[in-house]
Structure formats: C-alpha cells, structure tokens
Design a protein that fits this description.
The complex is a heterodimer of chains A (133) and B (403). In chain A, 29% of the residues lie in helices and 25% in strands. Chain A is built from four helices and six strands; from the N terminus they run βααββββαβα. The longest helix of chain A is centred in the N-terminal third of the chain and has 16 residues. The two termini of chain A are 17 Å apart. Chain B has 19 helices and no strands. Helices cover 71% and strands 0% of the residues of chain B. By secondary structure, chain B is an all-alpha fold. In chain B, α17 packs antiparallel against α18. Chains A and B meet through β2 and α3 of A and α1, α10 and α12 of B.
Chain lengths: 133, 403
Amino acid sequence: MARFMLFMYPGASAEELAEGPTLEAVEAMNRYNEELAKAGALLALDGLRPEAARVSASGVTDGPYSEAKEMVGGYWIIQAKDRDEALEWAKRVPQDANSFVEVRQIYELSEFAEDIQDAAQLSTGEPPHQTSA
Amino acid sequence: MTDRAATQRAIEAVWRIESPRLIAALARMMRDVGVAEDLAQDALVAALEKWPQSGVPENPGAWLMTAAKHRAIDLMRRSRMRDAKHAEIGFFMAVSAVDEVGEDDLLSLIFTCCHPVLSMEARVALTLRMLGGLSTPEIARAFLVPESTVAQRIVRAKKALAGVPYAAPEPEELAERLAGVLEVVYLIFNEGYAATAGEDWVRPELCEDALRLGRVISTLAPREGEVWGLLALMEIQASRIGARVARDGTPILLADQDRSRWDRLLIQRGLAALRRAEGFGLGVYGVQAAIAACHARARSAADTDWIRIAALYETLGRISPSPVVELNRVVAIGMAFGPEAGLYHLDAHVDLDGYHLLQSVRGDLLERLGRRGEARVEFERAASLTANAAERELLLARAEALA
C-alpha cells in the first residue's frame, strides 16, 4: 500500500504565522480535506503550531527563525496507488504564490534489506507509537 | 522518461480520482450507467489525445466533464431525441453545473453497481471499475481471470442494468440494498486478504481498493452503523497485512505474528470507526470488528481477552448463525477455557463436513491436548481440502511437526 506524506509549507512570514490563517483560507482547506476524505484517500492530517524549537548537539534554539518561509505548517498522510496520484492530490491543495507542498513517500518495512528489517523489529514486541488519526 | 509518458501517467492518476464522480454525474443525466461509462471513457480518450500536447488543464475534472457532455449532446442528436428519456437529458445538461456532483449521485451509482439483478461477479467488476477507478486488465489481474472474462461480465452487466430504472433504492428496501453493497465491498476485501485461489495468500492492492470504497461509503452514508462496522473491520484486519506473510510467502497465524509490525495508524482508524459503529448498535460487521479490536488491543497473543471474544462470537452466532461463526467460537472457547472445552463444544455443536478449517481447528485442539497422532491426521485432511497453495504448505508443515 503506497502511502505518502504531503507537507504544507505556507511560506508565510513570522507575523503572518502569528496572526493565523484567514477564514477564507480555512474554508478552502476544509473543502480540500473533505475532497480527500470523500475519495477515501485521507488517512490522517494535522496542522502545526508555528512556535518552534530546534534541538541539536549544541543545545536548544527557540524560533522564530530567519528562514520562517521554509517551515512546515501541516501535513496529510494519504493512500495513493502511486506517486502520480499523490502528485495529483498535491496539485489540488489550496495555495498562494508563496506556498508549496512537498510530496514524500512513506517507507514500507519490506523495502529494506532483511537484516535492516530484523534490526527494526522491536525486541519487546511492543507496538511503536504512531500518530493518531 | 519522456514528457509524454509523464503526461500519460498524470492522466491515469486524474482518471482514478475523477472517474467515479464523472460517471455518477453522467449517469444522473443519462439515466443509464452503461451509457454514462461509455461517455466518460470517450472523455478519457479525448484527454489522452489532447493533454500530451496542451498539458494537463488547471481543472482536469471539469475538462473531462465538459468533454463528456459534448459527447452526450452528439449522442442525443444522433438518437434524434426519439424518446422522452433523452429529451430529458437536454434539460439536465442545461441546468447542471459542470462540477456539481451531489453525494446522492455517487450513492445512486454505488447502489446501481451492486444491484440485485446482477451476478455477484458482475457487481464486483462494476464496482471496482466505476467506483474504484480500476481498468478491466487491473480487475482481471486482481481476480486471476482472463481480461475477456471481465470485459464480458461488464458488457453483460451494463445490458442487464439498461432495463433497471436508474435511481437510489426506496426507503423500505434501503437496509437490504445497503447490506448488498457492503457485501460486495467485503468480498473484494476478503479476496485480497485471504485469497481463495492462486499462489499468493494475500493481495494487498485489493484490500486497499476495498478499504477505499469503505471509506467513501462512510462519508456518503455516515448514519448507517454497519457502514462504520465494516470500515472498522477492514481497517483493523488490514493493519495486520504486513505481519501475516513470512519472507518465503508462507502465512503467519495471528498468535505468531510480530505485533510491532501491525499498522498502528490503521488500528487507530479502525478503533475510531468502531466507536462510531457502537453508537448505532453493532450489527454483523460491527461485532466482527469488535472481535478484531480485541486482538488489536492485546499487546501479545497471551494478553488476548478470549472470554470477551467467545462472548462476541456467541452474539454473532445469534444475529448471523453460520458454521464458520460456530467454528470460531470453538477456537475462542478453547483459548478462554482450555482445549478440552473447545473440543467438547466442537464435537457437540459443529457440523462442517469437508471444510478444511474444521480439521485444522480440531487438529489444533488435539495437539494442545497432547493427542498428537489424531492431530496429525486432522492437519493432513485439512491440507487435502484447501485450494490455496500457501495454506496447504502451512497445514502440511504442522502435520509434519507432529510426525
């Protein structure tokens, strides 16, 4: 089953992000989400708050960052037959001149070599936590 | 890869997304599913001719709809509006906006594809083709039959439907017709989940198609409990697909599966759908989903709430009695109260002569009671009765282990 993650990059400035989306933008996005659901393609989606912190070996840096336009604003997980169908859905995301959508296919365990698959197997048999839908 | 090939694939992707709505809207206008599908196909051919040069249009769905409508007008002129049915079309085309596809249109299309005048094979083929966006070769591959067989089924089905008024069912027959639709969807799912023929035990693409149909129907008929029940059942069962088959293609039974490979996203979706179903009172699919949920919630096979599962099978046996349900109840009783109780219930209440799963379950109970010789005979009989190669291997291996 091919699964894709669509990342929304709203391309908004820090001020615009702080203000939040307009009613029109929310309505347009809602229509899009409904279209995905009605086609049976939607598995999960979430919008992300703009406050960000980056954690690295050198410590924690709080946002906003200068390259705020390259921040993820939300994501969808969709089921699609192939990459072309995922791209077709991405083309339908309501966008403005500054935004873009990145399409990434989700790895299936079966794509990896057998030793990697075995290493990925959890020793406890405990299911890994995944996003709720 | 050439641009042309890329465009071709983009067109196929657009088709998969747009064709159900396109056919549904055309069927409403033409009052005939067969004609609607032919018109939609004509529009696809037009796109395949034009788009490689012009590029994929901004709103490809609207483009396809316009192209199909032009062909509808041509068709109407040729038929010189000889009957009232076609006179009506002019009116419909004048008033219906291009992108106006109501949910009722899609529901009518689903009910028509699953109409009781059609054979089960025809319902499956039509549903996958018109609602799943699958091509005839894809359907043929999925069901391991020649393309010509599927093509014939579709042609015959369209003919049979020409004599049936195109409409959603009357309220008094709605429940029965809806059950018929869900049956078709679950049949598609099961053919993918536990193939009855062929070399592969699972064909995930078919499960995916069925799940998608189930999700579509849940948005169209959200007040029908069994719609959610079936969706829950399919989501939870599908969550185990990655854990059900070993690398060499042999099936892995539920108890032996690596639960870390169960798909948590599908389980969460399934449990959410089950909660919706419970709000309406559980039917046949809902109870089965509740059973599947017991397994999904168990961290290990040993943690499984078999007492609850046995009780749910008893409920299922009351709403929908069948030998298979009784057999599963036997398994649950055996797990909840021990193999002796299971064997007692099986021999006292179940009659499934010549059904391979009976021998398999009986073998399992006997093995747990230490009656190895008898167990081996049962597994061998079960192996001789199944038509699925992978399953036969598994059963023979179990018999071998008892030698």
